[in-house]
Design goal:
Layout: E1 4-7, H1 13-24, E2 29-32, H2 41-51, H3 65-69, H4 77-86, E3 95-98, E4 101-104
Parallel strand pairs: 1-2
Antiparallel strand pairs: 1-3, 3-4
């Protein structure tokens, strides 16, 4: 099983770039198509811990039309997390998880923060 996972949208150029960076470095990753299988509340809470964030907005896409439609500007953390489970397009991408840490790979080169220094290019 891969020790790296990526919350991935194949239509997203940044996701594909992050995928390419991992591939170039020989990193075997599990690509989670979160739009097809929305993360659970527990998965989202765990992601927040790995990302080192307290506010779900830090891993959300507030520019998505559904964010405004749901009037999430003043929503609390639990309401935000529930909104992501119901509308996974709200989750920022790509999120890369490896070794008990995670980064939002924007820009995609942020995945390198999770790899050992000088990781070889295969």
């Amino acid at each position: 099983m891969a020790d790296t996972s990526v919350y991935f949208n194949p239509s997203c150029s940044k996701c594909r770039t992050a995928q390419g960076i991992l591939h170039e470095r020989g990193v075997d990753a599990q690509f989670i198509r979160y739009l097809d299988q929305a993360p659970t509340l527990d998965e989202l809470r765990h992601l927040m811990t790995l990302l080192g964030i307290d506010d779900p907005r830090a891993m959300m896409r507030p520019g998505e039309p559904i964010y405004e439609e749901l009037r999430l500007d003043d929503a609390g953390p639990e309401a935000l997390l529930r909104a992501i489970t119901q509308h996974p397009i709200l989750l920022e991408r790509p999120i890369v998880v490896r070794g008990g840490r995670a980064v939002i790979a924007r820009p995609p080169e942020r995945v390198l923060e999770l790899l050992p220094p000088g990781s070889p290019i295969s």
